[in-house]
Amino acid sequence: MKVTEHIIRGEGKTQFSFEILPPLKGQHIQSIFDNIDPLMAFNPPFIDVTYHREEYVYKDLGDGLLKKQVVKKRPGTVGICAAIQNRYNVDAIPHILCGGFTKEDTENFLIDLDFLNIDNVMALRGDAVKTETYFTPEKEGHAYASDLVKQITALNKANYLDDQLLNCSATDFCVGVGAYPEKHMEAPSLDSDIHFLKKKIKNGAEYVVTQMFFDNQKYFQFVDKCRSEGITVPIIPGLKPISTLKQLNVIPHRFHVDLPEALIKSIIKCKTNVEVRQVGIEWCIQQSLELKKAGIPMLHYYSMGKSDNIKAIAEAVF
Ligand code: FAD
Description:
Blueprint: H1 3-9, E1 15-20, H2 29-36, E2 46-49, E3 55-62, E4 65-72, H3 77-88, E5 91-97, H4 103-115, E6 120-124, H5 145-156, E7 174-179, H6 190-202, E8 207-212, H7 216-228, E9 235-239, H8 247-255, H9 261-268, H10 273-293, E10 298-302, H11 308-317
Parallel strand pairs: 1-2, 1-10, 2-5, 5-6, 6-7, 7-8, 8-9, 9-10
Antiparallel strand pairs: 3-4
Helix pairs in contact: 4-5, 5-6, 9-10, 10-11
Bound molecules: flavin-adenine dinucleotide.
């Protein structure tokens, strides 16, 4: 079922959803199930599965020659989504990126998803790879998520890349896209970022999931601004509980979001990461309860591959 239908079916009741990370190669599907199992009691209508590009380094072969060498791989998102749908009978939502994909790769990926009865996809650009400063699309790929959304909606109208292709049936994907209440790091202004968010929606995106935020006012102000710009699709808040002291520096640096002073102060007082984790849980519970009170129909939690803290939050909120 589509995310938009899940929201309508919820009839205003706040629902719980979360995303998981494919584990590093060498682990087994059971490691994913072990993280999902404790969260199924909270009836998530869908589970997102993030997509991670291979990580590589350039090895110097001498004589000015460089060899691209893959150093980090994860099992494929498509297989993980199929396993989740089979085991739990909930919708699995694969993330699909512009980065590392040609248009043909994208089409093949979508054909697999359609075959597996996957109804939703989250369309994202992806970040620059670690060896580059700026995002570089594949030669035959998309530079922005809005172009990726366009390709998916074209497939929904049975428009494949090659018009000579046989057996071209229309797909029926519901497309989600990302948005940033505190502005995407590369955007010159929030207005400009919202301008391009509108383009993703014009091209066919039916719902939005936000980047994590730690101050609900940022989310409420962002939603107000989007609504005043004519954006009417659901804007699902993305929430992440802080879990280690190191994240005090990593999160603002990597995700370009602010941490409220009160949260920083509480974390700095902690003597161990066990205490930090508890502070993170309590902060996220308060955020979630306020969003629930405001009637937000769906909350989305970034589990980052660990579910014990998300379970503690869900127990208090749902
Ligand atoms: P876009 O919408 O393409 O925007 C990128 C930047 O370009 C923005 O600054 C935007 O304002 C600007 N822009 C857009 N269109 C144009 C245009 N036509 N001309 C000029 N500027 C333009 N990353 C992963 O690798 N894997 C994941 O699974 C993943 N999941 C995510 C889930 C969510 C909910 C979110 C919010 C992010 C996720 N990301 C993931 C991170 C995401 O890939 C990065 O934040 C990336 O840098 C931007 O992706 P986007 O889809 O928002 O890009």
